[in-house]
Amino acid sequence: MVHSYNRKILHVDLTQGKTWVEEPPEAFYRTYGGGSAMGLHYILKEVPPGIDALAPENVLTLFAGVPTGMPISGQSRVMANAKSPLTGGIGDAQAGGFWPAELKFAGFDGIVIRGKSLQPVYLWIHDGKAELRDAGHLWGKVTGEVEGVLRKELGDNKIQVLQIGPAGEKLSRIACLINMCNRANGRTGMGAVMGSKNLRAVAVRGDRKPTAANPQALSKLTKLGKQNFDAIPDVNGLGVHGTASGVPSQNATGTLPTRNWNEGQFEGFQQISGETMSATILKERDTCYGCLVRCKRVVETEFAGTPVVPLYGGPEYETVSTMGSYCGVADLSAIALANQICNQYGLDTISAGATVAFAMECFENGLITEKDTGGIQLRFGNAEALVRMLEMIGKREGFGDLLAEGSERAAKHIGKHASDYLITVKGSEAPAHMPHAKKSLSIIYAVNPFGADHQSHEHDPYYEEGGSPLYFRRMAMIGLDKPQPPGSLNEEKVRMTYVTQVFFSALDSYGLCQFVWGPSWELYGPDDMIEMLRAATGWDITLDEFMRVGERRLNMMRAFNAREGLDRKADVLPIKFFKPLQGTGPTAGVFFDAKENEHWRDVYYQMAGWDVRTGNPDKRKLAALGLDWFEL
Amino acid sequence: MRIRVTLHSVLREKLPPEAKGQTQFVLPDGSTLSAVVTRLGMTDMVYAINGSVERNWERPLRDTDEVDVFVRAGGG
After folding, report:
1. B55: chain A residues, CB-CB within 8 Å
2. Which of A27, A156, A625, B37 is the most exposed place for a label (fewest CB within 10 A)?
3. Among A563, A577, A550, A573, which residue's Cα sits nearest to residue A614?
4. What is the ipTM of this complex?
């Protein structure tokens, strides 16, 4: 008997209009842990080399993790993968909410989506069955309307809906997937891939809750979680004031990207902090299935006469920063409306905010004018211009049509020296954490297979002298027992970057939230996590096996990229990082040296066991991970 | 000398609610940041002086300096 998962994967061929069910053996689950690695198995096997990411031959996978749906915090996650229309390499994005657990309750662990439907359709999955239904009446509607229509026509208010918005329908390369109208698989354009297949939504409902192998052990861990939540200030702050609780410390550290990364401190930081949100526009805290942290925000306000309603949730740290300091906007209500527009139209808030900030810098420097923007004064700090432009991106109207392609393609179109203002790696816009003080980010932003990402390793300040003894004890469990001087970048920091990247890669395979399960400040440490996985599955899983799964996923992504022609030459930081940061604070004047960054990348590739000349795994490395079936 | 201390996020709960996370310390001239750290008893946190993070706890304080205390900020 299997525990915690269904041993059922749903396959969909939209060209043929067919669905079928696969029942892989337990060994398959043990190899990948579910989640992103399991989805990548199908992508690496089936996606032909060199295809257009928006062609029917692309394969989109939506996978929950093996423990998703268990009665414990931080397990309800869905991982989306496909070839990315934004980067040309592997795409990857994760989301929480109630949809992932409901997918399990509906009888499936993951979905593999191929082909392209002639007409718009949606997928209705319930009680172990799946059917494709006409979605002509949903096309063009914003997410909130679609969720309402589907719940009404399927006659159940508890149906969970994962969908694209109008931006995904119109193939914006920064379009995302949205569930609950406020949880996003944000990065790398997965919404455009789903839109290219004419698939508007995946609705799920079921009551087949998987069993745990050892429910008592899970219950004991839940009690420990409650104690930890009160005892660990970092995770407590995240719950009480949301992810934007980090705004003041980011600002003090000089790592709050301001006016398109020209500065690291923002004079308006207090107006946009999580504490200010709690004291002003916060209506309530929200959660994902089974989680006690409750870090999600629900806000209610209005900006320029437009109401911001609770249905669309509230802005996360990333949204507060990309729409706020990144664009020079210090108005929390405007940021909340920006968040709502992105959730209505299905836009990644990071790429959308960063792309508007890029355009603002182009405007400030005369590379584009009001003639281009349709009369909009696209200047830093102009909150009205921000929300107007986001709506134009969502609808692909006027100048928004160009920005819907993402900043890198927009820069090519604008020409002149617009590319000097890009904050992208592999074409994907960087999130709102700056390597200028968190030096490990200068490695991970460069080498991460799907572009600059802040959730692909543990930030190095947690591995610096003077930190918490609890965090150091946890780090030591994965062999990181030599905390380094603050602000340094050295071989041990690179080792920490690689090891925690492997750890986070495994989290995205087993489908575990990175605020709840992690190697330092999170609700639970690595030892608790292994205990949880054992209690859920009944497997004799070890930390070594967990890390092996993470390494396998990382190599699968890098191998996919290698086949698509991406190598170390694509692992390049934005030009701006090599120029002194302006403004105030501890990072003013800080810049990176290209040669030095190249040196640390060499060290990283060696640690990963990759060919330093290419920065990619070779056949021998893939074989060692059981991936010899993949043709490089 | 008088130093204004602001505790951020959930740390402010260590002070009475009406304080809104703010308090004032009177310290002998020549005191360093470590005097604030010791008095708060919070050695794992991030400290900033006048808006910029300060890792050197032996840095001397001056009258009217403002000290901010944060939890560390990771991803998210």
Report:
1. 466, 486-487
2. A27
3. A563
4. 0.87
